[in-house]
Amino acid sequence: MNKPFNDVFLKACRKEETPYVPVWYMRQAGRYQPEYRKLRREHSFFEMSENPEICVEITRLPVEQLGVDAAILFADIMTPVKHLGIDVAIFPGIGPMITNPIRTEADIHRLGELDPVAHIPTVLEAVRILNQQLSVPLIGFAGGPFTLASYMIEGQSSKNHHKTKGLMYAHPKAWQVLMEKLADMTLTYLKAQIRAGAHAVKVFDSWVGSLSDVDFRTYVAPTMRVIFDELQKMGVPTIYFGIGAGHLLAEWNKLPVSVIGLDWRTSIRSVRAQGINKVLQGNMDPSLLLGPWELIEERAKQVLDQGMERAGYIFNLGHGIFPEVQVDVLKKLTHFVHQYTTIPEVWG
């Protein structure tokens, strides 16, 4: 018999009353798990993420191990990009590497379109299986157009995004074409995940924090508005997250997105003091997970106390779990979050 469905995460996304603060972790399906590392030694990343059986196992494992309130699909933001005609591989410790980066406007016009049925049937099959097996909501996800554009233009992760911004500034019409193509791909990808059974979707815009608020508003916000406007019609919660993007939150607050994910640099209290009225997710520094338990507990309390000052809060880290983190520490933290936030006087 299937376990009762735990919808606490979805309730928090909608600012509904919850019995405790829900918790899940970015990159909870990944390199810190011995089971994942064993599989990774035997398969390439895309072989793992596009094999339904392996994808389901890796996605489900942290839910069973840690007791988290949501699962996130095991995939990568580059999963759909390679079907546009981009030659990409993912290397351990390095990340995505592209051998045919975008260099001209003609390269942009040559990009193909994502066909979910033809290109990602195994990903969607994994979503359908997970929808039947999980007792918590499944989060689907995609990369943000600016972040995807940066990888596609730079050819790999970049510290300064000079080539990307150079194209954006010098060739705004070509940039707009690229944004439109990536918005179409992102929507096609996320809508397919939702139709297959994803209960919520998240846009990871890892590098968008490298933009000023003026540049975000000018070159990226119109694209994000189109994406979240369309996703809103699908009737599932949406989440937006980026690194070092505290200066962009006022702009994000204008978007039709359900939840804003925070990194560890910005306190929850200071965000709400700006008038940000979205549901917030975050934002303990993941490096703390290497510290002593007493410090982890103290900092978790600080984050939780701020999060619970208003309705609509989800506990998470301020970035993804990294390989050195121990499974037992995450399990203990998850239990602590649930236990601490169900004490009536804490809510009072």
From TrEMBL:
Keyword annotations of the record: Cytoplasm, Decarboxylase, Lyase, Porphyrin biosynthesis
Pfam families: URO-D
InterPro entries: UROD/MetE-like_sf (IPR038071), Uroporphyrinogen_deCO2ase_HemE (IPR006361), Uroporphyrinogen_deCOase (IPR000257)
EC id: 4.1.1.37
Top-level taxon of origin: Bacteria
Site, as annotated: Transition state stabilizer: D76
Top enzyme class: lyase
Pathway in which this enzyme or protein is active: Porphyrin-containing compound metabolism; protoporphyrin-IX biosynthesis; coproporphyrinogen-III from 5-aminolevulinate: step 4/4
Location(s) in or outside the cell: Cytoplasm
Reactions this protein catalyses: uroporphyrinogen III + 4 H(+) = coproporphyrinogen III + 4 CO2
Domain Uroporphyrinogen decarboxylase (URO-D): 22-31, 139-155
GO molecular function list: uroporphyrinogen decarboxylase activity
Binding site for substrate: R27, Q28, A29, G30, R31, F46, D76, Y151, S206, H319
Protein family membership: Belongs to the uroporphyrinogen decarboxylase family.
Subunit structure: Homodimer.
NCBIfam families (alphabetical): hemE
Purpose: Catalyzes the decarboxylation of four acetate groups of uroporphyrinogen-III to yield coproporphyrinogen-III.
Protein name: Uroporphyrinogen decarboxylase
Organism field: Laceyella putida
